[in-house]
Amino acid sequence: MAGLIALDDAHQAHDGHPYVQLMLDHYHAGAEGDRPRVVGLMPNQSPEPPIILVESICDATLFGLANDQRAILRAQIIQPQEIITFYEPSAVKRDTTLCTQLKNMDPDGRVMKQQFAAAAATLRDVGPCASDLVWRRYMITLEQEYRAGEPEPTGDDAADEVASENFRIKTKVRSLLKEWTFTMPNLNPSSKSFNVTPKFAKLIQILQCFEQQGDEFRGLVLVQKRSTAAAVADMLRTIGDQLPFLRPQTLVGQETRPDVLGGMDRAAQRDTVDEFRSGRTNLLVATRVAEDGIEFPQCSVVIRFDLFDNPISYAQSRARADQNHGHFIIMVEQNNDVHRRVVYGVARLDAALQHWVHAVANTPGGVAPPPSLLEKNHTQRVDSDDEEAPTEECILDPTSGGRIYAKDAAGVIYKYVAAHSEKSSSKPLFEHHLLENGQFQCSLKLPSSSPFRTITGSACKGKYESRRAVCYEACQLLYRLGHLDPKFFPRPPIVRSFLPDIYSDFKAEPDWEARSGPKVPNAQANVNVDATGQLIKGKTAGTRCYVRKRPAFWKNSLTLGFSGQLFPTVIQVDLSGITPNKHRTLCIFSRHALPPIEAFRIFHSGSSVEVSLRRCEPFDLDEQRLHLLHRYTVLLLRTVAGKPIDNPLERTPYLLAPMQSEWELPTAPPESPSYWRPDVQHGIEWEAITAGVSHWFRPLKRGSVEELEGDLDDAMIQDRKTEFSRRFDAVRLRKDLTPRSKPEGLNKDMPFQSYIDLCFARRKGFEGLEDEQQPMIEATAVGEITNRLNPSMNSKINDDPLVSQYLIPELTVRHSIASSVYRTALLFPSIIRRVDDYLLVKELNAKVFDNWLQEKAVLTAITAPSAAVEFDFERQELLGDAYLKYLSSIYLFVTYPTQQEGQMHIARQRIISNRSLLQRAREADVPQYIQAKPFAPKLWVPYNYKFQKRLREEELVEGADKAATDAQSTITDPSSSSLAGRKRSADEMLEGDEVLDEIKGDVDPKVAALETENQTASTKPRRRFEDTRVQWLGDKCVADVAEALIGAAVITGGIESALKISKDLGCYLPRVDRWSDFGRKVLAPPPEWTAELSAESITAIEMITGYSITKPHIIAQALTHTSIHGTDVPCYERLEFLGDAVLDYLVIGHIFDLYGSLSPGALTLLKGSMVTNLVLAALCVEIGLYKYMIFENDALGKEIEDYVAQIQRAQALEYKIADNEGRLPGQYWVDIEPPKPLSDIVESTLGAILVLDNFNSKGTERMYQKVLKPFFERHISLDTLAHHPTKVLFEMFQGRGCQSFEIQEAPKGGKDAEGNEIPEVIVHDVIVASTVDTTLSLATRRSCYMALDAIAGDPGLLDNLCECRAIATAAREAKRKALKAQKSGDAPTAAGTNTEEAAASASGEASVEASEDADLDLDQMQEMDLTDLEDGEVQDGLDIEENEMNLD
Hints:
Helix content is 43%, strand content 11%. It is of the alpha+beta class.
């Protein structure tokens, strides 16, 4: 970039001049420090108002223009006068007397739910008087219903009873309202009967200021909710004598609910605007519908009664004010952090955005917004907006649930253009055309990277309406083409999740595993109510039941229907270098385009494989092929799942199709546009799809050996003509073998002389072969569904079996699905599970974080270790924990300048405690997104699929269409599963369904009654993983996820992004919106209050830290010990508190990036070894910082002197040994106890540098890179890490299940005659080791070393002392025998046994339950126990005893 920009006639650099484009594209696009200087030349004439815009665009100051003259010019510029006015928070919290009585009539809100919500919102915004007026308006609806009379019976007794009860309630309400005396507004705040909010009183004061304008007055009051608009207008009419010049009216969106506000269709909107234009109405109280899309005159004043939530709303509402003499007034609640953030956001717009905001109001065609609009569009979650009715047309984003209504369309287009334009443009976006009939049409011009460049909208009566129409139609077209990314949709609301009804009245968690002994009917409930009022009850303290969310994408896409257009997504999996077997490409067809999903990994044959999903060009499909594709999808999924499942087309979320064998994904041609997508419709293998639907299997072609050999190519074959039978990959045709050959690989005790003999013995109804000389088929068994997301589990799977089997062609059939297709399809369950994970991530990211976070980081953050995949939240939780400590420490340091370290430490613990994090996560409804259950392949059922009957042989051969039709109308007994007679589990019934009610609604009543009876009669405990709608999570797990999400923000955008996300999660940091706010708030002690450092000391400290010190008194405070006399002299304690958090954050950030694959436990151990007092004191001595510490304590000086001598000797010795051994020096400081002030001043120095930099981290990072990092890399690594002996000893005891070990002080105070500490290591009341040292920490370390030496010297020592494992094994065996005896009926019931035996009998462990399933194989039992254990215990943070993990 050039170093100087010279502009001639610079005074023209405003509005649409090319200079504006030059500065926006090339100057403001660069980093602030890299921008060139600007010199502008202009004629010698009196400056005019636009010069203020020139200064902003050119980032320059007009030479010779005085500040007072600049203020005059600024006032003359063509823009409304912006005013921010503050009002006090409302003190009214309780319902009015009228509302209370009405709630007594309708206690559950079944009849008047909408009215209660409107009354509550009005009470909060306008006051008690207006809240009662909501019910006065409701009387109109009640009178109409009362005159109509009680509803006629419909024949449905239950529905008629409900309707009759509702009518009775409404009749009582009508009687009460008719007799009620509604009070008049009292605007006197000093009066006891003051019945409006300070917010409404402030609005009255504002409006009174414009009374002098008389008939020229036009005002617009913008609110968020329709109920608020009606209440404000009603109140203004009621107090008309105080504001006689006002003639108010409401303007709201279309299809308003008539029982709340009364209807307002488009004609009513036009009539209201005409009245406003003519002057019959001079004040509109409107919702967001008035921001854009309706044309009416510019207003004298625009008042934001409720705040805007993004820059687009700000620009549009500001444009409604008269640009010459109008006022734009923003009402802000005092001490409201959300309001303050919103206002500061628009006050800090960059020059490009300021220019765009100005152009929105002054350029008829509008201009393209700059890309920075997306950065500023972090939408605040303001109260619900226009309350659209369900009948209003909208565009639904299936991923997040966001909706685009007509009034939102212009804002969406602005965001779309900002995202697809590389630079700002001064060219107009819109062009209006006046038609012959007097109507207007608007054309929209999009960037070159869009799938279409220009679109013309429908004809409308006004310009604003035509612009809204073209924007909405452009959104519709982009949506249909699959190019409207979810991030462009308005931020969807958080819909609170509630547990299913069967969980609403738990007195305790259902004892599904019978681990807690006999059930006690009156057990005390662990009840918790979160901020949403949701009642959640758990089994034990710290464990709660939550909804387990499924992606909204599939459910929402079902509402779109198959219109004939399909959106293909190709699954690309390259296994060429891992397995010799061919894998065919599969394509997913969805009703709506899948959102972009980044590549992810699965695991095959012990290796990782990248899976990428490539979105392709949508195309239309005729009905015949659509049904073919649907039936083929059912065939493929039934074959892969091995279960008799089916799904009608209207409930099928996606379709699958194989691509042709040699097909390759097309690549983009040269110079293709960025929106180009490959066309795949000609690569679909329709011939195989048609054949598969016609005949699910067929006999092999045996006309000749060559024909048979060709038919076995890429063939999957079966040895029986049943749907669920053994399947094989055909390897080759063995011409050297016939059915008369002796079978290979049989046991010696099997006297079969030929394959024919074997068939007579093994095949029921076998009568012989037509051709006993036919060649045999060598085949290998095909694989089955496995968990491809777990690398450790996958490494044990043999994906390429080598054991061959030999089949007789005459008895074998070929499946219609090719082997290469089936192999890829086996990967599909794991792939779609990961796709579902990303869809959940996108939904969470949109609803809670406004698409601010990296999706991979969010996925990691919500994945618990119990999910058993390649990643989990633990590493990011460490990063988020360090950031939270860093953030909260700075906030407390700045906010409470007089608080001492101890008080701030307590306050910090409240902010970062697990309890606080848990509450924030629950308020944001994060727990429902947490992935804590592992993927269970054998229980997998595709979304929405139900269990149907198994198909007969003739149905499979004659045709699948008839079979499918019959199957859809019949649901057989649950035992008709395909898995070797295994009973269908509840998880299989629920896995593919959104809610239990859907299943019950589809099942025949007789079958449902039979299932209910069977479940009631069953006495076997249900497993916790049965109901896939819910999950049990530990409080610590949820809190850790909240920290991991903050860690994801650090990864995404550093400390600024993490600050935003922390506040989104509810972290209370008032008056802090961006990191720079800390620097403006900090208060440092004046120089005369602190101790002094000499110039030489300052220079030396600068050399040590690598930081140039501008305020020496801050560094002096960091080095001042508490021993300095005088209470007014500040010491280092507060800075040490701050520096401790700085050090933690820097260390975690360093090792997090350095050791990308290191486990969380190892990271914690590594970090702990870097921030201890021992290592920091040694560092302090090495760099010589201790020499400049200011103190007045002789004992401390002697202690430091002795420590320096010891540590230097130890360092010299360690360096010498390391040099001789050719290694890096180790941790020479571990056995030397340091004076604590030495480590404190290292941390306080870091804190002081942070304060000097106004909390910019550059200075602390420079000191870390210069001082701490080299020291850590030289002395502390995973190889040189010294494990604490106490930790090693405790892990040893826990590993062998010992329940009786401790470290305690010796009797008589635990000290010897000289005052030295004497800790003892005791195992089962036997003292194993004891030693003496000056401090308790050193003595404990030495005692543990001695205990480890004693155990190493006598391997049988612990076996002689501890029998805990043997006792636990015996107890487990006793429980197993008792359960077995009770099940067989040979043992007495629990009532006839002693208490201990009854408890043991009732506490049946998961392993015993699994062994009771005689028809489950060992793999299934292990998988089910692993699922149960991971979900139930690991994620809850509870200890698992070894006896609970036995799988014998």
